[in-house]
Design goal:
Number of helices: 9
Bound molecules: zinc ion
Strand content: 5-15%
Shape: elongated
Radius of gyration: 20 Å
Strand order of the largest sheet: 4-3-2-1-5-8-7-6
Oligomer: single chain
Amino acid sequence: MATLFQLQRDIVEAGRRMYARGYVASNDGNISARIDERRVLITPTGVSKGFMKPEELIIVDMNGKVLSGTKKPSSETFMHMQVYKDRPDVMCVCHAHPPYATGFAVAGIPLDKCVLPEVIITLGHVPLVEYGTPGTEELYKPVVKFVKDFDALLLANHGAITFGKDVLSAYYKMETLEHFAQIAFISQQLGQMNILSSEQVQKLTEQRSKYGIRTDVGCVSSEGETSCGNPGVKDFLNTDALSATEKEELIKEVTEVVLRKLKKHE
Ligand SMILES: [Zn+2]
């Protein structure tokens, strides 16, 4: 287990990177790390995460009660504590407002398309969690149903949260999420997002266990179905769930939408 000194150093460094990359503005965002079964180290409120000093971090108990530190702990301490209770494997929680990922969260679009191998392996799909008022217990309520199965979540009209086995792994998931959101945004601007087939996705999810990543986190559920609901286009059209007329109708509808969009851009 990492020492308190290491955890302080890692949180300060993750905060510095988060601020430097524009994932937070002003004093936004928060990072915490589990010290042991009883204590958690968390960032203070009202301090820029880019310029924190190790001694400014606060130690709280599992109920969020301050055990040591002169500043007030993050206003989202409750959310962090709940994640640690619901996910015993999680050692660090990162919360930020990275612009592209938050853009998707504001637009109400989950990042659940299976398009990038690295993202499928490290994150799986990223669901969109419905809105809850930040700084209140309401923020966590909608998170509950997702926290056990995912390592990265979009918080509607707010930002993103990632979990990891240590500080850097949670922080890197935030980086991967934002990078994915940026690429997804660009491919949508280009007018095409090619989705990997369920077979290709399955091969990638098999690799997760090799890297020690929880196998039940990702695009493929325990039944082997793509939980993202986005099987390859080919698979979708080959499905027996739709009749020939329905397939024809669907293709017509999609073509019309695409043509309308192309016309708009002319
Ligand atoms: Zn926030």
